[in-house]
Amino acid sequence: MPGVTILFTERALLAECTLNFSPKSSEVTLNKTRVFSAAVTVAGLALTVTACSGASKASTEGYPTKSITFVMPYAAGGPSDTTARAYGACLGKLLGGTFVVENLDSGAGAVAMQKLAGAKPDGYTVGLSTNGPMVLNPMSNDLAYSQDDFQALGTMAAIPTLFAVPKDSSYKTLQELFDAAKANPGKISIGVPGATSSLATELKRVQKESGIEFALVPTSGSAELITNLLGGHIDAGFVNDYVDVEAQVKAGALVPLAAAGEARSEAFPDAPTTQEAGYDVKTTSVYGLFAPKGLPQQVSDKLESGVETCSKDAEVIKQIGDRFVPNSFSNAEATQQVFADMRTRYEPLQAE
Amino acid sequence: MVSSPVEAAAEIREPERPHSGSLRWQRRIAPLVLLALGLGAASGSWQLKLGTLHNPAPGLWPFVISLAIVLSATALIVWPGHEPVEAWGRKSLSVVAGIASLAAFVVLFELIGFFIPAVLMLLLWLRVFGRESWRWTAVFAVAGPAVLYVIFDRLLGVPFPADLALDAFV
Amino acid sequence: MDILSNLGEGFSVALDPVNLLFVLIGVVVGTAIGVLPGLGPTATIALLLPITYTMDPTASIIMLAGIYYGSMYGGTITSVLLRLPGEAASVVTTFDGYQMTKQGRAGAALGISAIGSFIGGTVAVIGLTFLAPALGKIALSMGPAGFVALMVMGLFLVTSLGTGSAIKSVCMAAVGLLLSTVGQDPVNGSARFTFGQAPLLSGLDFVAVAMGLFGVAELLRSLEQTEKAQIIKTKIKNIWPTRKDMKDSAGAIGRGSVLGFFIGILPGGGGVISSLASYALEKRRAKDPSRFGKGAIEGVAGPETANNASSTTAFIPLLVLGIPSNVVLAMIFGALLMHGITPGPRLMTDHSGLFWGVIASMYIGNLMLLILNIPLVGIFIQMLRVRQGILVAFSLLIVLIGVYSINNTSFDMWVVLAFGVLGWIMSKTGFDAGPLVLAFVLGPILEKSFRQSMLISGGSLDIFVTDPAAAIIFSLILAGIAIKAISGFRHRFAGAKASPHVPVAEEEDPQATSDGGDPAILPAASSGPGEGAPAAQHADKQHSPTAR
Fold it and tell me: How much is the ipTM here?
């Protein structure tokens, strides 16, 4: 028994030091000894240091030969962080290295992107990025990096978006909402998660092109947006179609009006897409894997195929959520294109 | 022994009364700096565009705050107050030296990692500022950074910059 | 009683030996992490998330919750002993807690905090047990307009805190507000006062600012102090609060529990406001408000109680509505997601074992923390016996790498250093750091909420009257001002006749009079008569009113 415990401790500690998920979690049933040993693991955190030192020694030949820094422009805890950690663990297992996730959320992600842009293009520094830090932030701020400094390696996950209203809202369809805004310019309030989020930017674009004027209310994130929706302080929300919204819809507190993506939401198949409802509003939070431009072909191929394999990995899918991991893999080229398109779409808006 | 908090409090900030005019003027230095800050911030916010109260632009809120700083600083220049303040003395110079040493620590930390700068910083603070014996200084200055390195970098996974001294061993 | 049977079920979950172990681990790790500056519960939970994935969901949430409220206890320790507040709510604790340490009463301060935290935490869990669903609705009633009102109230409280002149407090609060505007504008995202520095886009980090202004400034000041003043030796025999301390604090703890409980429900900023409100309330109620900021035990007991109560009720929006009200709870939300459990309105029914198990574990966790703190207070007090030079050197080093670890950038090290220098200069020129730091926390919420309100109302200020929550809070503020004006008027009347009284008539404590060996630690910098030790030795006899 003690032997088992220590072994477990070391393994988990290893996972700890490298910030990986424990690799075999799927087979962990909730039997008490296991749970107990996990307990000891956590207790051991405060006491033991062993096992950590060996963590960075990776396989000896070919890429990778040492641990890889996985830069994250967001704080720990959100869906992007889960994505980075799930893929980090999977890629590490697959390629035989260790991916150390580094959360650098200061500067609205700019610090992380700057670090990634400045790193040597050798495959030992990669990073997750999305529309905000990759496209919008360098557009609107004077930063030391631009989109051209990075090369995409594939899409890891994508969070769709949707329009939602509180359950007792008088707007039953997207058209009613937009018509109301047309009739009362600037009076219909729509919450967006963050002033510089791609959702806010997309709505600004729509406002500019369609002439419909909303009262765009940026909140500090989804949680605040949902609170305001539930409390009836705003008329509608344009929000990430993530599980937090899903739970509110399932409980009947929120009603989805339309999914703002290419396809209907897997969670709410009854809600039409914006396209079907007759409006050109769409944005998706794409979590791409990026590296500084100029990666050796061999390394980039290895990473790209690694992302593809991991996007089909059961463990990764389970951790991130089935409907957020694309069923058909969007490769390096396609991902690069998605971000390039975003730039052309929003550049005219930022020029003002 | 425990003194009554009243006396203790009185002594925490040793009263230094404004006997002379020059001391009263010294009390106006800080408010003047604040006034300058307020004016600078006000002009900075003006450039950010104010908008209106009903439709505020980015500069409005900082502008309102800057005005509050300007007003309160002006009031303090007119009435500098009589509360006891601490005197500047020769000892204040050692604080400046301490600050410089910490700045040097941060610069070195970025360049050569945690361990060596930490040892150097502790050597200075323990031996010179703390007047520890050489023996204790040496023990703490080496053991301390080692333990902290293990806790923060290894155990808690804080990514310290590449370490000149330790990366060869661990 | 439906609730009681549910709670019974919860206890059967929480009392399971494995879960009990996790409660213990949670509170121990939480306390330990709270003591390390810069390493708040956020970093810790982020670190443990991968491990919790392999654990049973209930056990993992029990543990993470334990870390959260355990860290509140731990944060008190550094605030009181070293004037290092790790999070916004414990800034208030430094005001009187650190002064008590200087007077050799650190044990009493920590002891009363532990007791207050236990009572506040327990009251809040009881409230959570019986009132959670109803209270969830209160959280929702707070929209942007309500937050404007709440933050305005907070700012009023902030400016009434200082020990110096009111104008200085207002000025410092304004500086704090100005500093908080650094970064991206909350509504259109344009950069303000960032001077081309990318890390400043998300603003100055609170922990770096607070630790600089309080902790680093204080550590730097120690270099100026005379040798004698540097020797910190505290009578350790008397580590617990005296009966008189208890009596003095009882009211503060009671009121702090209630304040913390209700204000803690409000997402975002609830914790700070509740400890601020408690402090202001105690200061207002005190016979001699001038004691505050100079080591009044109520000034520690009240806010600490409120802080812990509010950290417990902060779980209400998460558990009842599925809305995480701060970063730590967002991580706990994330931990639940990883187990395939989505917190939301149906959590209580769909996962009642988890829901009630977590609540029951909070009763147990609070009790464990109280028991743990009895020996811990004793141990931490010993820390003051460490020679000052060693304590200062290591505190500085740990603070520097602690702030580095928040965002993993050395930029924050420069921030903490710059604010350390600023705090040192402020203490030399008689400005209080408290209003600055607290306004720094409240400012962004005020601006964001105000601008959201203006967007929602189409630019009409009527929203602050028509929004029920805003209307209620604004009328509370007006009532407060009116009461202050009236009592101030009456005070001036009565004050003319009153003789100069002795503010703290410390009960004749045998410890206090015997043994003149250690002067209370008075880092009195300077000249002037009656400096340092001799004066302190005669302190009990002098009983002069505060020199002013």
Answer: 0.86
